From TrEMBL:
Organism: Durusdinium trenchii
Protein name listed in UniProt: EF-hand domain-containing protein
SUPFAM superfamilies xref list: EF-hand
Top-level taxonomic group: Eukaryota
Stretches the record annotates as Disordered: 152-175
Length: 175
């Protein structure tokens, strides 16, 4: 008889359990990220919340210029428009989760440990951003977000409609 190669099936099963467990942990982290972004706690992520959190995440590291803040704001508005909702309507956790997985897999398609580390970093930034939002709301400071562009013909944006930022007290109610 020839040589028969045996695999260590227990090792393969353990690796699969580790991957599945990490997927569950990553899913929990994405859910926590949604909760942090959804600071008005109304179950849907609005463009105001998304942009405000992104601005606070990107701008919390140091004093940044107004131009940089505007670039982040415009980029975040476009991202919401192109990847979450083209009509700027609030999105569910499911839509946010799909958005996060698409972006995570674009950055790191196969390495779940790397995905975990990316999510861990995003969570830390989001926690800091959420604290900044909460402090601003307690002090009755105006929101960073003062206008939302609307889509015009094609894919261009223009700041046509003004949207007040998140309310300073109580949950946002859009009707």
């Amino acid at each position: 008889m020839g040589n028969i190669l045996f695999c260590d099936c227990e090792q393969i099963l353990q690796a699969k359990e580790d991957r599945d467990g990490l997927d569950e942990v990553n899913s929990q982290m994405v859910h926590r990220l949604f909760e942090l972004y959804n600071y008005d706690r109304h179950g849907k992520l609005s463009v105001d919340e998304f942009v405000t959190m992104r601005l606070n995440q990107k701008c919390s590291h140091a004093n940044v210029s107004q131009d940089f803040s505007e670039q982040i704001k415009e980029q975040s508005i476009r991202e919401f428009h192109t990847q979450l909702d083209a009509n700027f309507k609030p999105v569910s956790y499911r839509t946010f989760k799909q958005y996060m997985w698409r972006n995570l897999k674009a950055i790191e398609p196969t390495d779940r440990n790397a995905q975990f580390l990316i999510l861990e970093g995003l969570l830390i930034e989001a926690q800091v951003a959420r604290e900044m939002v909460e402090r601003s709301r307690r002090r009755n400071l105006p929101t960073i977000l003062t206008s939302i562009p609307t889509a015009t013909a094609g894919t261009e944006f223009s700041p046509k409609r003004k949207v007040a930022g998140p309310p300073l007290t109580g949950p946002a109610r859009r009707q």
